Amino acid sequence: MEINEFIEEVRKLQISINDDILNKLEKYYNLLIKYNEVMNLTAITEKKQVYLKHFYDSLCIIKVIDLNNEESLCDIGTGAGFPGIVLKIFYPHLKVTLLDSLNKRIDFLKIIIKELNLTNIEAIHIRAEEYALNNREKFDVVTSRAVANLNTLLELSIPMVKINKYFIPLKANIDIELEQSKNALEKLNSKIIYTCKFLLPIENSSRTILKIEKYSETNKLFPRKYSEIKRKPL
Q1: Diameter of the chain by CA atoms?
Q2: Which residue among 73, 118, 187, 194 has the highest number of C-beta atoms inside a 10 angstrom radius?
Q3: Number of domains composing the chain
Q4: Does position 166 have pLDDT exceeding 80, yes or no?
């Protein structure tokens, strides 16, 4: 995806884009490539691919929710900052929390936050299920991209979502995962209210974004320890 193609596709999403945003993305890309040589942050390094499969793909969350109307967002298993950093660049009003279990990724994200002069954002080295224990019903939006199966993600994420707010996973093809997640949705007092399936521009690869609403408080039993979640998913 060339820069001009990126700009065009972002505008199709009805997202505002300007020179400041483009400069931040360019700096983000250069730092990603620089630190990837020693940190192994991503297998995708070619510029056109980063703009398509990391930057644009992260923004596609807008297909199911208007982030202008939300105040706080948590990105679990954020990796090199997708989608969390990208969303913060485009929606600077958001209070963003980035979680990852690998400290080297958090070190990288702190560099990005500093170099891009981003404010009201924090990167924390912690497992999502551990963070959720003391941060229940805290966020308007919890999101994740290419992290785990849906039934596992639901248990990690839903406890952190405010009542009547949303967990929005960014996935590829998840028909099997959807079938497997019915019990988790019920036990976690949540429901899928919108499913968006589409093809990524240029390469036409399949994507699915779910909008999952939490309709009442999560039972204090959840989330369980990760070993138990993995051994016996909901």
Answers
A1: 49
A2: 73
A3: 1
A4: yes
